[in-house]
Amino acid sequence: xxxxxLGVLLALPALSLAHDVPRVPPNPTYQAECGSCHVAYPPxxxxxxxxxxxxxxxxxxxxxxxxxxxxxxxELSAFLSRNAGRRAAPAGEEPRITQTAWFVxxxxxxNMRNPADCAACHSTLKGQ
Length: 128
Ligand code: HEC
Ligand code: HEC
Description:
Layout (H helix, E strand, L loop, with lengths): L2 H17 L8 H7 L13 H8 L14 H14 L17 H6 L22
């Protein structure tokens, strides 16, 4: 292998942590309503049906009340569907990003005290 190409390959793992975490498309309503208790999770990390399940029970949201009025709910649901991903989500009424197969695999080497606290390790998810 030529040295230049090898150098490029070796640089890849260091970049990937910042580069492959999807951005949250700008949306003030989403930031305000879904980014107050935890980071506003990137919509692309769950498929549309999983977001639908989450939005269907906001008043009993992972042990919290995260309910919003109907127009806001419609706006958030549309935003999440529009920007959702395609990878499979866990079954159940409360699908977690942190329980998807890719998440578990990707984080098997990380020391996770609170896996849902993305910003502790991913600076690009801070303050969004
Ligand atoms: C009142 C506080 C609150 C609000 C507002 C809130 N959440 Fe949550 N959310 C929580 C709590 C608490 C958890 C569980 C966190 C944990 O297990 O560490 C959670 C977990 C989640 C998870 C699963 C994270 C994982 O473990 O993979 C998703 C997805 C999620 N929330 C999406 C949303 C969306 C979308 C909105 C806006 C409609 C929202 N949340 C608004 C409190 C809130
Ligand atoms: C304890 C630290 C830690 C926490 C908390 C954490 N991550 Fe990660 N995450 C990592 C590390 C380290 C990697 C890279 C794994 C590797 O490359 O071996 C990673 C990889 C990823 C990747 C894949 C990026 C790539 O390199 O392909 C995504 C997407 C991701 N994390 C999203 C999240 C989200 C969303 C949350 C919160 C729900 C989260 N992470 C919580 C440490 C963490």
